[in-house]
Amino acid sequence: MHRLFAILCCLAAVVAVRAQDNNQRAEVLLETTEGNIRIQLFNETPIHRDNFLRLVSNHFYDSLLFHRVIKDFMIQTGDPDSRHAEPGVSLGEGDIGYTLEPEFRVPQLFHQRGMVAMAREGDDVNPQRRSSGSHFYIVWGKAFSTKDLETIQQRLDAKGVKITPEMFRVYRQIGGTPHLDGQYTVFGRVVEGLDVVERIQKVFTDDYDRPVDDVRILRAKVISPSDN
């Protein structure tokens, strides 16, 4: 009986440790030409989390450009063709060759400022809304009035997406891109370096939304949540 009790205690301890591990969130540091951006990944989107960690660990994002930047909207990277792209070349068509099953988690995870989401092809060629395997964007957006949000809600109704009172509050006070909710998978958030995102989204761009002066990820690396 004592031996059984000891075994049960050991099992309980293992379960407790695993529960703690499950509550931890992996983090990635993007070292860019404009400064560092620290991203926390959500366990609620394990497919996207694990894919992103694998690409970062394999140095996929090292030397890639933020090839698509739109002021008051978002900054996007992930095109492998951008690594050695000549100035002025249109980018965005390069990809890693696979897509990911969507993991929409609205209203828990939505497009408020600082959120990180995966880009994808449009509904006309991608009705399942599968994510790109490598392209991701960081949300900047803008603050919306209640009237604006009510108009956006009317469009989202057809897609089965509801803006909750908490989402209304965040979009009014903090900002974001609510029209993307339920359309693109949010899988992380910026926990440090939002000022860097702000600087990047303000840079001068060409007709292709590519920054005229390259903004590059020098290195991306997986870090411990305790790292400073």
Structural class by secondary-structure content: alpha+beta
Largest β-sheet summary: 8 strands, antiparallel
Alpha plus pi helix count: 5
SSE pattern: HEEHEEEEEEHHEHE
Major sheet strand order: 3-4-8-6-9-2-1-10
Mean pLDDT across the residues is: 91
Which runs of at least 5 residues are low in confidence (pLDDT < 50)? 1-21
What's the count of strands? 10
Radius of gyration: 20 Å
Question: What's the shape?
Answer: globular
Helical amount among residues, as a percent range? 25-40%
Strand content: 15-25%
N-end to C-end Cα span = 48 Å
Give structural notes.
The strands form two sheets. Strands 3-4-8-6-9-2-1-10 form an eight-stranded antiparallel β-sheet. The protein has a two-stranded antiparallel sheet with strand order 5-7. A hairpin with a 2-residue loop joins strand 1 and strand 2. With 228 residues, it is α+β, with helices and mostly antiparallel strands. The model is unreliable at 1-21 (pLDDT under 50). It contains five helices and ten strands, in the order αββαββββββααβαβ.
Which helices and strands, and how do they pair?
Blueprint: H1 2-23, E1 27-32, E2 35-41, H2 46-57, E3 68-70, E4 74-77, E5 99-100, E6 115-118, E7 131-132, E8 136-139, H3 146-157, H4 165-173, E9 186-192, H5 194-201, E10 217-223
Antiparallel strand pairs: 1-2, 1-10, 2-9, 3-4, 4-8, 5-7, 6-8, 6-9
Distinctive features:
single chain, 228 residues, alpha+beta, eight-stranded antiparallel beta sheet, 5 helices, 20% strand, disordered N terminus
Concise synopsis of the structure shown:
This protein has about 230 residues and is of the alpha+beta class.
